[in-house]
Every structure is written in structure tokens, then in C-alpha cells.
Write a structure and sequence with these properties.
By secondary structure, this protein is of the alpha/beta class. The protein has ten helices and nine strands. It has a nine-stranded mixed sheet with strand order 1-9-8-7-6-5-4-2-3, sandwiched between helices. The longest helix has about 35 residues. The radius of gyration is 18 Å and the shape is globular.
């Protein structure tokens, strides 16, 4: 962890975030809760080109604990989501948070998809923004957390006139995450073996994904992370409204920690061997249970 002197010299203030830190950021429903009070997550993810991202995000969000998921997107991913999760609602309505952009590509986005993303960002509710929605951050009217990998962060920095290659970012990811967070005014979850969550204040929460992290380098893993984070933000919309970027950063770090733990559990279920993204999503509930039961 950096010292106060290092922070004064412009270095990010660092804190390691573990599963023990997650308990206060996982909503446990009470006997009087219903599907609306438990939080509603809106999803504008996936596309006819990449429909699986929407399925993985919805599965992960459902396993994280959410009252309802509303999906507004292309017909192909909508149909696949309903095959996997028939409880997902495909009618627009009020939401507490949005998950946007996973499985979409700005270069191939049609006007209808662009309108959906713009409309969601303009609502003013908290938003988790990934992949094909990262170019629309200027439209956002509410708190935002972005979930880029190194190449996507490089493009975000370039929009601010900052030149940093993916290899530059890899050499000092926490510092570059802070720079992007300050430039864009958003929380940045920079994915990697150690995930760095940076707030515009300069605080960084470091999340180690553990010895099984290599298995997370698989297609769709980031879509699962987005679903976990979207559910956490939707169930803590009031906390985000009160705590702003600080609360959003803690939710992002919690999502990264749960994601890593779910990967480890999924691998153990397969004898310590390879896993696929849906395995990770399926394991999220089993990771959350012990945390909320005894705080470990």
C-alpha cells in the first residue's frame, strides 16, 4: 500500500479489496421485499452479431441477486435470454441501474441501438458501461462505472488527448486507471490479473483474482463481470446516490472479487481445470451465500 507521502506526490492511494470487504455491498432481501424493492436492472447489451454477451450478463446478474432484469436489445439476444432465463422481462420500464454495451461494437452499431444506449445514459440512473457503449460517455447524466481492458482504456485516454498504448498501461495500470477516472469523471474498473478500481478522487482498490485467474482469460468472462456489477449497482442505487463515486468504486471492487472467487469455485468443480464463462456465472450464488451468512 502506498504511503501518504507517495499519495502527496501524485501516486494513487491504494487499498487491497478482499471477499471480507464485500459483505456490506451485497444486498440481502428481507421478508417485506418484493421484486421491485430488490432492484431492477436494465440491460442494453449483446447484438445480433454477439448475442451471447447478453445471455451471460443476464445469467450473472440473476445469480448475484436482483429483483428483476429488463432487457431492451436486439431480437436474437432477447430470444436467447428468454430460453435461458424466462423470468427476464423484455418490456421497457423503470430501472434502478443500467448495464450497457457488452457484446456490442460501436463500429457496427445501428441507429436503433445507438438510440437505446443514449436514452439509457440520459436517464440519470447509475450505469455500468462496457465495450460498444464507451464512446457515448458524454451523454451520461448519472454516475458511471466503466469496465475496460487495456486497449479500451487506451482509446478512452486518446479521446482526452492522452497517448498511452496498451503496453504503456500494462506497465502501470493503477496510475493510468486513475488518470482516466479523473479525465472522464467516472469510476474505472480496469480488468486484469489484478483488477484496479479507480475513482476520480485518486483512490484505487486492488482486487487480486487469485491463483486460478488464468482460467478467466476466456470469451465472455467480461460479460459475466458486467452482469455481477450491474446487479450490485441496481440493488445499491440509493447508496450510489448518497455516496457517489466512492460507493460505486466499492461496488465495482466487490464485483471483481466475486468474479474471481466464482472462477476459482467453478474451476474446483471441474477438478481444477479449464472453465467457460457460463461456469463462472453459475458459481456466483454459491460464492455469495457464505459471505452473507457469516461475513467470511
Amino acid at each position: 500500500m502506498t504511503t501518504d507521502a507517495e499519495h502527496d506526490r501524485g501516486q494513487p492511494a491504494r487499498r487491497r479489496w478482499t471477499l471480507e470487504d464485500c459483505r456490506d455491498w451485497i444486498a440481502v432481501p428481507g421478508v417485506d421485499d418484493d421484486k421491485y424493492s430488490r432492484g431492477v436492472l436494465g440491460m442494453a447489451t449483446g447484438s445480433d452479431r454477439y448475442p451471447g454477451a447478453a445471455v451471460l450478463g443476464a445469467e450473472a446478474a440473476a445469480r448475484t441477486g436482483i429483483g428483476m432484469i429488463r432487457y431492451v436489445g436486439d431480437d436474437v439476444p432477447a430470444g436467447l435470454i428468454l430460453q435461458r432465463r424466462p423470468e427476464v422481462v423484455t418490456v421497457a420500464g423503470r430501472v434502478q441501474a443500467w448495464l450497457l454495451g457488452s457484446g456490442t461494437d460501436a463500429a457496427h452499431r445501428d441507429p436503433a441501438a445507438t438510440d437505446r444506449l443514449r436514452s439509457a445514459l440520459a436517464e440519470g440512473v447509475p450505469a455500468v458501461v462496457d465495450a460498444g457503449a464507451l464512446d457515448l460517455l458524454a451523454v451520461a447524466r448519472g454516475p458511471v462505472v466503466v469496465t475496460p481492458h487495456y486497449r479500451e482504456l487506451s482509446r478512452l485516454l486518446a479521446e482526452e488527448g492522452v497517448s498511452a498504448s496498451a503496453s504503456d498501461i500494462a506497465a502501470d495500470p493503477a496510475a493510468w486507471a486513475v488518470r482516466a477516472a479523473r479525465a472522464k469523471g467516472v469510476v474505472v474498473l480496469l480488468k486484469g490479473h489484478v483488477t484496479h478500481v479507480a475513482a476520480p478522487s485518486g483512490e484505487v482498490l486492488d482486487v487480486s483474482t487469485g491463483p486460478d485467474a488464468g482460467w478467466l482469460a476466456t470469451a465472455g468472462s467480461g460479460d459475466v463481470l458486467g452482469g455481477i456489477l450491474g446487479a450490485l449497482v441496481a440493488t445499491h442505487a440509493d447508496a450510489v446516490a448518497e455516496g457517489g463515486a466512492e460507493a460505486m468504486a466499492r461496488l465495482a471492487a466487490t464485483a471483481a472479487a466475486l468474479h474471481g472467487a466464482a472462477a476459482a469455485l467453478a474451476s474446483s468443480r471441474h477438478g481444477g481445470g479449464p472453465i467457460v464463462a457460463l461456469d463462472v456465472a453459475d458459481a456466483v450464488s454459491a460464492v455469495i451465500g457464505p459471505i452473507v451468512d457469516d461475513g467470511t
